[in-house]
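so my prof wants the structure for this chain in the tokens format not the other one, which i didnt know existed until like an hour ago. anyway here's the sequence
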Amino acid sequence: MNMKIIFNKYAYVVLLVLGLGTIIGCQPNDSVEGNGLSDANVDASFTITPVEGAVNTYLLESQTTNVIASKWDIGEGSYVGKMTEKIYLPDAGTYTITHTSIGRGGESNSLSKELIVAESDPVAGNLLKGSKFESVDDFNEWTILNISASGAAWSYIPGYINISGGGWSQQGIYQAVEVEANKNYKVDMKVWGDGSSNTWFEVYVSKTVPVQNNDYSGDIRMALNTWAGCGTSAFTGKLSAVGCSGSGNIVNFSEAGTVYIVIKCGGENIGSSGINVDNVEFRGSL
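here's what i got, hopefully its the right format
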């Protein structure tokens, strides 16, 4: 074979590879900056409009330009919603409404506005006092129900309350409310914790009067119960959603009168941070 021809073919291949390397080396970086695939300035603005003819109901509307998804937070944690959301706020108060717009490339921005609700819904307003635990005075609206001599104990933390402890001890809190006959009422609350072992967290709505230094029992309406499979690992949300025991959070009484909302918790180990509670609700069910 002609060696000159072989050399020329080899040289051609080398030059071709070097040329491709030069072309590839001149290509733009893979960075998405400035290429239109992301939008760091996505607009999170929104409007709040009362819904005509509906009590304490509001329409939240996001601007939609370059927005591919919306998240909303009306004070109980962020959730994925629509760009137009209808919300119902039955209780008077000042609410911080936060909207998060998600744009191209997953970029997001948030904007918050305050909404003042002047009056509670007379039909479905919360009957409990101090339900949001915004001050120690709110906590004092509740009565501590001592059951065990020591161990588990409720305490006030600005914005919520906490029960911690263990050693198979338990303690409760309660509040009395007046109910009408044959009317449905709903009880619920926000709860969160890091997880417990051999622990119960129970909610009662009953005409039975709590007695100090005595256990409280009866129809458990809602509960976290580690034996039933909930509360063993980190949890957060409405008790109606994260709980796994109880006869249901809608109650009805054949006679008008006083009932007691009792929250009782105890066990071997309630968890490193205990169980936290906020936004306790007892209201007429719509």
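also thought this was worth mentioning. The chain has two domains: 46-117, 136-284.
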